[in-house]
Every structure is written in C-alpha cells, then in structure tokens.
Design goal:
single chain; alpha/beta; about 15% strand; transmembrane helix
Length: about 325
C-alpha cells in the first residue's frame, strides 16, 4: 500500500461525505482511507459504510481526545508507506494523489504538504475567508505560497509524511491547537526533508461564518506563543506582523477622535484588500466581505498572540491553566 489517508472527524458527517466522494474519484488508486471518529455525538459510520464498496476504507470510533491524538490512533492502524493527513472539511481535486505521486517520483521527500483553494460551491463568506488565509496582503505569504515569507511548514489539513518518519517522531503531541506546526517543527529539527507540493492542493472550507473564523485565528495566535515557549527559535519576525497590525489599528482608532486622518491607513488597507479580492474572485461582494475577513484574521490572531504573551510570558501560566477553556473540554 503506497498511501494511507487519515481523517479525524468530529461531528461532521456531511463534510466527510464530500471528502470521501472526492477520494472515490481519484485518478490514482493505490491508497487506503482510515477514518477516526473522535467521540462524536453525531457519528459518521453510515457515511463510511456507503463508501465501503468504492474505497478501501476503515472506520474507528474512540473517546474524544482532540485531532492530534486521533491522527496518531489512525496512524497506528495504517499500512501505507506514506501517511496523508487531511481535515474532514476538505475536498480533493481528481488529480490530488497523482500530483503527490509525480512529485515523489521526481524527488523523494520525508514530509510534504500542499496549498488550498476555494471551491466554486463555497459561500461568498467562505471565499472571503479563503482569500484572507491565502493572500499575500494578510499572512498568506507565511503559509507556503510562491511569495512565502518563511520556510514551508505543512499544516494538518493537507500534510504527508513517511510512515517510518512519523513513527520515529512519535506522531502528534498532546497540544490541542498548533499541534500540526509543533509536528512540522520536529520534522525540521529531526533533519528530515520537507517540501511544498504546489500542485497537490485541496479545497479547504475552513470556517462557515466570521464568528467561528475569529475563534479559529484567535486560537492560532495563542498557539504561536505556546510554540514559542517550547521552541523559542521558532518565533520569527513574520509571526509578529498580526500582533503589530492589531496594535497599530488600536492606536489609530484611539487617535481618530482627535484627528480623522489617522483612519487613512486603515481605509487604504481596506481598499487594497477589496480591490485585490474583487479581481481575484471576480465579485465585488466577496471583495467587501474580504475586508471584514482580513481584519478578523489579523486582529483575531493578534489579540490571541497578545493574550497568550501576557498569560504565559508575563504571568507565567502553563498552557493548560492559561487556556483550558479554549483547548480542553
């Protein structure tokens, strides 16, 4: 078996159905699928059973422990030479696995990952959120695009790793958020080769509304400080940009009652985002939504970063005590 596709799922049977449908339509078929139900109250067993005649698929149900430990559970029961980790809210293009196979034939890799795009079926809000997470004008440059500002770290929504490397590293840690970056850091620290496969992209739904999106990116900001506490060298200047942006916007807004011109940089940035997103998505409405999504992405991350810095670096709290309401049931 060449590939084992591992999918942790928690209360998302409809999304899993779409992902399995896209796996059933792959042009490359030397793979198995391992679905790990992470203590869901809305199980996906019936969805998995529907695809048993279309896929080499295995289903496991376990108590809730978070996505990282669920991936480890699936990895222990996988037989593939390579493990491919996907989030349940992804959809694959037909040539996804073919693109991975082509890259590995050209040059071997111990670990790899790919980018993401917005599917035409996504709502306008989802497309705006996708823009904010991939645009060079937000932090998309950090995430492995052609204009990347830092080396590429695979993310758990689209990540591949050799089975023996996964085992040697002990899989994902017990972090409830940021565990994929933690794993990527350990890949590099272990001296393994990690590459971006630009053609192995996925459609990634992310969050369906702006409130959920804020919570997601806020937790990402918190995770960055938690990672810094484990690996001080992992904190780069680019990771400070959302925090600096958040502080700058706060200062400009505080100055607005005394000088309206202080709002000019905010307005110019909003205009830049709107124009760029409108051109990319061919929709003015998505361009307008992208303003909100971009500010939420940067400020949500920035406030999480500042909050974690205060609680962990100034007050000296550990990860569990400082953020158990965010990460733990």
């Amino acid at each position: 078996m060449k590939y084992s596709v591992i999918i942790p799922v928690y209360n998302r049977p409809d999304e899993l159905d779409e992902l399995l449908c896209s796996l059933a339509g792959q042009s490359f078929n030397d793979f198995e699928v391992v679905v790990v139900e992470d203590g869901s109250s809305v199980p996906c067993k019936e969805v998995v059973e529907y695809y048993q005649k279309k896929l080499d698929i295995h289903y496991y149900n376990k108590p809730n422990s978070g996505p990282g430990q669920s991936r480890n559970y699936g990895a222990e029961r996988s037989t593939g030479e390579y493990l491919i980790i996907l989030d349940s809210d992804c959809i694959l293009p037909e040539g996804y696995l073919t693109a991975i196979e082509k890259e590995l034939q050209i040059s071997p890799a111990d670990a790899f990952g790919g980018p993401d795009r917005a599917h035409e079926s996504f709502t306008d809000i989802q497309k705006a959120i996708n823009y904010s997470m991939t645009s060079f004008f937000t932090t998309g440059g950090i995430r492995g695009g052609k204009k990347k500002m830092d080396k590429f770290y695979p993310r758990s929504f689209n990540m591949g790793v050799r089975q023996d490397v996964y085992t040697a590293l002990g899989g994902f840690s017990k972090m409830r958020f940021g565990e994929d970056i933690d794993f990527s850091i350990r890949i590099f620290k272990g001296g393994y080769q990690c590459r971006l496969f630009p053609d192995a992209w996925v459609y990634h739904k992310r969050r369906t509304d702006l409130k959920k999106f804020f919570k997601q990116v806020h937790n990402s900001g918190i995770a960055r400080i938690n990672l810094y506490k484990k690996y001080p060298e992992s904190l780069k200047i680019v990771h400070l940009l959302p925090a600096a942006f958040t502080l700058g916007v706060a200062i400009l807004l505080l100055g607005a009652p005394f000088c309206l011109y202080s709002l000019t940089p905010i307005a110019l940035y909003a205009l830049l985002v709107c124009v760029d997103s409108t051109i990319q998505n061919r929709s003015l409405l998505i361009g307008i939504y992208s303003i909100a999504a971009s500010f939420i992405q940067l400020i949500g991350y920035g406030t999480g970063f500042w909050r974690a810095w205060w609680n962990r670096c100034i007050r000296g709290k550990d990860e569990f005590e400082a953020f158990k309401k965010n990460f733990y049931k």
